Amino acid sequence: MQGAIDTPGQAVVLAVVITPQLDTVSVGERVQLVASAHSSSGAVVSNTFFSWLSSNDAIASVSSAGLVTAHASGSVVIAARTDNIVGTANVVVIPQR
After folding, report:
1. What total of structural domains would you count in the chain?
2. CA–CA separation, 50 vs 16, rounded Å?
3. Which one of 4, 42, 80, 92 has the lowest number of neighbouring Cβ atoms within 10 Å?
4. In this structure, are residues 61 and 35 in contact, taking their beta carbons and an 8 Å threshold?
């Protein structure tokens, strides 16, 4: 979905993409996720605010900037939401190496 960049007011967000979409981290580690909003043409919608949510904060929490911190072994779904459109990524947390 690379190409032109739309600005707010020009395009409606139809998809949210999080990268990486799958990551494995050890307990205590952090990983930065990045969300991007895309219009129907596939163009990136700039200046988009995302709210972030973890399916289980006891396993891995996520900051308002998409920084995931691993707390315990298991797997979680991290979601980024804007304009009622949600994208997800899977994070697997393994014991410390």
Report:
1. 1
2. 9
3. 4
4. no
Q: Token match 């904060």: residue?
A: 57
Tokens at 50, concatenated: 């995302």
Task: Provide the b/e sequence for 58-85 (b: ≥16 CB within 10 Å).
Answer: ebbbbeeebebbbbeebebebbbbbeeb
Q: What is this structure's pTM?
A: 0.86
Listed in sequence order, the residues at least 6 apart from 84 whose beta carbon sits closer than 8 Å to its beta carbon are none
Residue-number span of the structural domain to which 29 is assigned: 5-94
Both tokens of 18, joined, read: 């999080």
Specify the residue for token string 């050890």.
26
Say how far apart CA 9 and CA 37 lie, in whole Å.
13
Q: Tell me the per-residue pLDDT of 8-65, one tens digit each, with 9 for 90 and over.
A: 556 789 999 999 999 999 999 999 999 999 998 889 999 999 999 999 999 999 999 9
